[in-house]
Structures are given as structure tokens and as C-alpha cells.
């Protein structure tokens, strides 16, 4: 393990060690830490916390992805640009902005209709 920390800068960075500045722990210190974690059953607890954080991160990413893809779905399906896998003309920024502005108006149309006074 000590060799891996020394040979691979990525491992040292993950462990929070600056290879050029910090003195690397020797193998005995690493084994003591490992046995201490095992003795107090902390490995499972740490992995459970990491797993929960990863699942929360995946939910956040899915939420962001859904919010970004919904206007694209409207542009492709409701406005008739089906074969535009993000291939709207690069030169025609105005057309691209107009399409996405229309998509956002479509997303907000119910709220906009509720704002109109009923006569």
C-alpha cells in the first residue's frame, strides 16, 4: 500500500497526501489503521455512508438531467425538430434561442393562462 501511495499520485491525492510535502505512512501504520477500522466495524459504516452519499448524488444528477432534457424534448417533438440531436444550426444562434424560448413558454403556459383575468 505504501508503494501504491508513493508510485501513483492519484492514490496519494485520494488519501489527502501531498506526495512531495507529506511524509507517507509506512506499511505498519497503514495496517494498524486497517485493523483498528476492522476491530470497531467502521469499514461497513464508512461504506454505508459513502453509498448513501452516492445515491443522493445520483438523484440530484437525474433531477438536473430531467430539467435540462425536457425543453429539448419539446423542441424536438412539439416544435417539429425531431432529427436535431443537438444539431441545430451552429451559425443560427437566433433560431436556437427562439426555439428554446418557445419551449419554455410552452412549459409555463398553464401558469400564464391562470394569470389572465377571467372575464
Write up what this structure looks like.
There is one protein chain. It is built from six helices and no strands. The protein has one domain. The chain is 71% helix and 0% strand. The longest helix is centred in the middle third of the chain and has 37 residues. By secondary structure, it is mainly α. The radius of gyration is 26 Å and the shape is elongated.
SSE layout and pairings?
Elements: H1 2-7, H2 9-14, H3 27-39, H4 42-78, H5 93-107, H6 109-115
Please summarize what this structure is.
This protein has 119 residues and is mainly α.
Structural descriptors:
119 residues, mainly alpha, 6 helices, elongated
> Helicity, in percent?
over 70%
The H/E string reads HHHHHH
pLDDT averaged residue by residue: 78
Number of domains: 1
Radius of gyration: 26 Å
Tell me the major beta sheet.
none
Strand fraction band? under 5%
For the secondary structure, the number of strands is 0
Q: Using the alpha-carbon principal axes, give the shape.
A: elongated
Helix/strand/pairing category: mainly alpha
Low-confidence stretches: none
Distance between the termini: 76 Å
Q: Given the structure, what is the number of helices?
A: 6
Amino acid at each position: 500500500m505504501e508503494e501504491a501511495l508513493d508510485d501513483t499520485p492519484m492514490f496519494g491525492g485520494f488519501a489527502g497526501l501531498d506526495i512531495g510535502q507529506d511524509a507517507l505512512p509506512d506499511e505498519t501504520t497503514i495496517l494498524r489503521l486497517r485493523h483498528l477500522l476492522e476491530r470497531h466495524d467502521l469499514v461497513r459504516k464508512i461504506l454505508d455512508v459513502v453509498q448513501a452519499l452516492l445515491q443522493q448524488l445520483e438523484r440530484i444528477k437525474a433531477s438536473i438531467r430531467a430539467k435540462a432534457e425536457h425543453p429539448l424534448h419539446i423542441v424536438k417533438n412539439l416544435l417539429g425538430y425531431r432529427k436535431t440531436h443537438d444539431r441545430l444550426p451552429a451559425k443560427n444562434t437566433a433560431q436556437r434561442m427562439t426555439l428554446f424560448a418557445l419551449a419554455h413558454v410552452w412549459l409555463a403556459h398553464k401558469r400564464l393562462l391562470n394569470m389572465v383575468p377571467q372575464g
